[in-house]
Design goal:
Six copies of one chain form a homohexamer. With about 290 residues, chain A is an alpha/beta fold. Chain A has helices at about 10-25, 30-35, 60-70, 100-130, 145-155, 175-180, 185-195, 205-215, 230-240, 255-260, 270-275, and strands at about 45-50, 55, 75, 85, 90-95, 135, 170, 200-205, 220-225, 245-250, 265-270, 280-285. At the A-B interface, helix 1, helix 2, helix 4, strand 7 and helix 6 of A face helix 1, helix 2, helix 4, strand 7 and helix 6 of B.
Chain lengths: ~290, ~290, ~290, ~290, ~290, ~290
């Protein structure tokens, strides 16, 4: 059931996060409620169901959560990552001992609803700009330890990813410009020192900065920060296809269509990953 | 500047999270932008400033982020955790080499704005119910690896914490009741097996369940799930001070006052930690 | 073969401890004796047998030790955790390559004999007070990294567990009282700040302290430290069923019956986990 | 205050054990008792005092426990590792914030009293055989993760260490002999394959086995298992100074003198590390 | 003494590697030779000296090795990273207790001589092509866990870095082409799916493949594999400055000048990091 | 297919190294080239083939690399560790999804070619001294974190291992002698303090030092440093079979035969592990 456009994160990457999350939740004595009130031989079937419409992300993490607790439990996927579901839809089932399901329930739901929340918000924006060529893109405004997962969820929602780290592209921002002595000096230095497989992006707040950049040979991409659609249009004209035009700064689902219509290639939004509305997903358990 | 009502998380607890977050962001080659465009001997002073009103949480994590990069950098706090600030307020400063400040900027901001977002939302709810005795409380709906920090942020916002883990209290929920054979059986089993320092809470959806519980001796606390203020009032009357009354289920800042006025002791809200609106905090860097 | 009264520790919790223990014992070159003197294709069957009577705990750790070395080795349990065996009894068998069995032998025996030693001592005390309602309980006087296992062993021996950590209950001890300004101040502060699912226990050395506590509303439990059976009886009378009465301080199998007969609910003993007499268990290997 | 005969374990080796132990005890919310009842600005001085006579081991671990919680706390040693103290003796002091001292108290005491218990038992045996040349030696019967510390404690008590791991010497035991086809085959194979800096020890239960070993060139050391003093004497005569003679099996302080008088070089005792009676050490805290 | 062209790896990145290396070397009992034969209060001064000419890399790792053993030891640098030294040159000194210096000696030398070996070989190649614009570049053929350090050493030798990981650039190699159905299909797919800050490089073995690539719009860089200088010249002509030309395949110091003279931008060599001749560096210790 | 003379390293030991290496190479976004250009359902068969003659080591690490990525992939060994192959020989095959094979390719090749390089160089030396009794032996000059693997590769090449760590044998080197006051003092101190299963080796540069050592009872082994074959012969005569004679210092395949012919037992060479020429091994992938 692999999605050709969304290669899964390897279990290798998920496993340390899930082991830590399970130990964080189980503590030293484990699930003392289940131990106290549920018969140890009770087997159950439980259904993950959406309680609101949305786009799903994180099922590999949910699957692995239960597999780490009990390799013999069985997880089946009905609405894979990147699929958009209605309220009430069956997403996945987990079958196994009641203790396995109840021990892993909260960890699985916490990750699944968080990542699905990111995918859902991304998907909403992707649709809002579908009439344009613009892509929706996240940033490095992610939560500690969760960057790979959060950026995966953006892809599950149909979005694209910006830099993963400080070391995979050069992005010269306002603070760098202030310290480096302006656009021309900074951009020239960056081009001299960048590796040959490293792209250079420059944040510009004004068209003048953009012109300065072009005057010294230009960057591979421009982060056009807090510009109006009209300013963006002018910037796009100046760039003229020789570099990527990326709009950023306070973009919302409402303002996105006009911004995208300016002709920019990318809309990047920090809040896709820093301000996440969890997708409401429930787990309904019945004796098996 | 220790707040008597908010003991800090020990650095010991923050350090592994911050080391991992820094390595996640620095990758293997580090901050190639700063290396390329900023002179290595450049020193800076940078100010953390609120860009919207809110309640602060996470300054120890921000401080330690920079200290791990450079023990000689200097972090000064102006608006400590739990303080509520206006837009534009100076929260803290970091002074040191430009590379230290720029290498740690994103990690520090990501955590600080996330935790301050939690504190701010909590504080809003605390104020909404300030005319009652009710406390605002979070749940286990936290992000993997961040539970201690997120629950600390709730306290910074004036809220209280529910269970930290599956092993520090018994909470019999609807799924347990379905599998255990009902309120009376489950509650009796729980009391027989609970440790002597472990409290027992029971989730009830109806007054009948509450009466069943009281009939077999009662729980230490009741999670009154998805009840109207009127139902909650009846529940509080039935409980009659012999146990904690906790309301949960779809509570918002708008509905909180009426719910709190029902006489419950606790309002618990999963979204305090699973649906966080990051507080907008910026870092303004100037040469030092 | 799951014991309803003794849910197993999840492998997830045991695995890091066992991996570290195996690497600690194998070093970098591994078991150079077995490599030098045993043919690599030799298969064996080995029996864990008690060399003295006792109560067993730790078989999941023993099983997982060998499974980590070789998933195809076969571990079979004959006397499960919590069972009491005579000298010579067969506890479990491990079948597999000689190198697997010999590589894991010491790690498995070290843990199994340590935990069985705890279970055995606990069981002896449980029997000593079986004519009363008192429970036998351990403390936080455990060895670094082994708390979950040691407390599990106490349960396997029929005992109960006190706090698992500093964060799951409030226990106001003599040092706190000295610094906080006495029973009334400390207890009042604790009640104001405790979470709603957190119990409060107070250590008292005298009946006066107990009366002071009751005068300000009382605690959920009292740790009656170093009292004689007569004093304990008076304390129980004062408490009058409104709180848990826990005796501690120098309790031995000899003194336990009289202490338990005082009417206290709990006898807690640090030495159950800090002064462990390993149960003598041997591993007898024969070619398979 | 470094003891020339007892080089300290590097902090590097202690730190991971202590960090894990502190996090195990602090949980996610930390020391909620101290937070609730002690003023945050309270400073204290606390004394570690022996409550029974014994030999001290583990002060570096105790020191580092507090340093990890607060680098500015001050730990002073009065009775260093390897010193033997009377009941009531001052061992060390810790000065700092009350929260630092109370947060680290249990972890520091658990390790210090465990290791001092090992040192004390070792020292008792060392004295019991002081009239002979025999050394007291521990085995690999240690607790998971604590081998370096427990073996250090044996040295602090005046004892010596056997193998640290399976990979630093060859020790052919009864199980190996059974699988390898007897003393001559096993010993010959071991000599052929042992590294040039690896010693070979052979466990023998009978004088015949010892003669067989000598007949094929002998081992570097013999583990004379469960022999009477008379048998040991005969074995020593047979060995005739060409190898180390080591007695093992059920040695107690009572039987040790006679065993040592047989002329063996080493008495090795598993129970020095697997059956530890913690030394009773208390921490008395006063406001500073 | 920071080199503007060679920003140091943060200690944060080095520390886990060095802690692991020290524990790997110290084992559980530590440096038993030094404990046995050197007085504990002996202080020393030791000099790192080159025993052959070369370029230095790894002094931060050497410094931190000793600092982790003893924060009060003093490390002074005389020939910083990236400097080229003659045989006999003083590189650095370490002053402190003899045990600190001897405990860390091997770990520090192992890393320093390995990284300096890489820097030296890189520098030799850089000089061999100094008459051209070509840069010397390493690959992902590094040793497990050491990639950041080995690539840093290449930079210290004056070289440049290729991809750090599979995730920071697209490099379509022969195996990909075979599976993807040829240059045109693969390159088109890569351009459709690459992030906007991700460069695409294509490995080509023939000029025909290069022409195919250009026909569908071209890549950002071409890896010209195993071509003769004449073929490379033709390839450079075809590329015509629109993309980076990178030569690879069996390049040696002897063949490098001719290859570089073909006009390519980059010479990449796997053996810079996979076949390292350690630089001979000694540590001479004298009492201090 | 276990080699009786070469017991495999347990997966337990390899797994942490391989997990870290895979995460180092995959980064956070994984293999973006394969994701972009290869169909997700493509299965392949890939052959590891030697591109030059050599001796193989590291196939367990290669196997486990792919198993960690996908437990269902199939790894088959054709030329096991310790076998010597011709150029072009098939070493092993891996069958599975293209993404599994391509994700693990570099990590598997990096380790396999490094360890095979060590085995190949060792084997060349073993053959060079095959006419003598001398063994070829490595040192502690290994790379951080890779000591167990590198020393295993030496064994795969037919060599032997010296100390694994500072704690498994005493080796008194020139620096120790300088600080300890000469051969007699150092050797006497070492013998007094060495554990009974610890051998003592002494580095000597001159025959006088050797005579001094013998005069005080001698060591178990002598490291004869930088001696000519003639000097070595004299040393061997002096030692007269009472201890191991080990030659070290600048030994090459050319000088090895004459050195070995001097009668020494051991030739030890640091460069076997510090200056490794990777064996050229390729992975040829075809659709399956």
């Amino acid at each position: 059931m692999t999605n050709p456009l969304l290669p899964p994160l390897p279990d290798l990457m998920l496993e340390p996060i899930l082991r830590a999350a399970l130990l964080e939740d189980l503590g030293l004595a484990g699930d003392i409620t289940t131990s106290a009130v549920i018969a140890p031989n009770q087997h159950v079937r439980a259904e993950f169901r959406a309680r609101q419409p949305g786009t799903i992300a994180g099922l590999d993490a949910a699957r692995l959560t239960f597999a780490l607790l009990d390799p013999k439990s069985h997880f089946e996927i009905f609405a894979p990552d990147a699929s958009t579901v209605q309220s009430g839809a069956l997403i996945a089932t987990i079958t196994g001992p009641a203790s396995t399901v109840l021990n892993g329930e909260r960890v699985a739901l916490n990750i699944l609803s968080h990542l699905s929340g990111i995918a859902t918000a991304t998907q909403e924006l992707v649709r809002a700009v579908a009439h344009t060529k613009a892509k929706i893109c996240c940033t490095r405004k992610t939560l500690p330890g969760l960057r790979a997962l959060q950026k995966y969820a953006v892809r599950a929602g149909g979005g694209a990813n910006h830099r993963y780290r400080l070391d995979d592209a050069i992005l010269i921002k306002d603070n760098h410009l202030a310290l480096a002595g302006g656009v021309k000096t900074a951009l020239t230095a960056a081009r001299q020192r960048a590796g040959h497989l490293v792209k250079i992006e420059l944040e510009v707040d004004t068209l003048q900065q953009l012109q300065d950049a072009i005057a010294v040979g230009g960057a591979d991409a421009y982060l056009l920060d807090n510009m109006t659609p009209a300013q963006l249009k002018d910037a796009v004209t100046l760039i003229d296809g020789r570099a990527i035009a990326e709009a950023s700064g306070g973009i919302t689902p409402k303002t996105a269509p006009a911004i995208a219509a300016s002709g920019v290639d990318i809309l990047s939004l920090g809040w896709l990953t820093h301000t996440v509305q969890a997708l409401d997903i429930g787990l309904d358990i019945t004796p098996a």
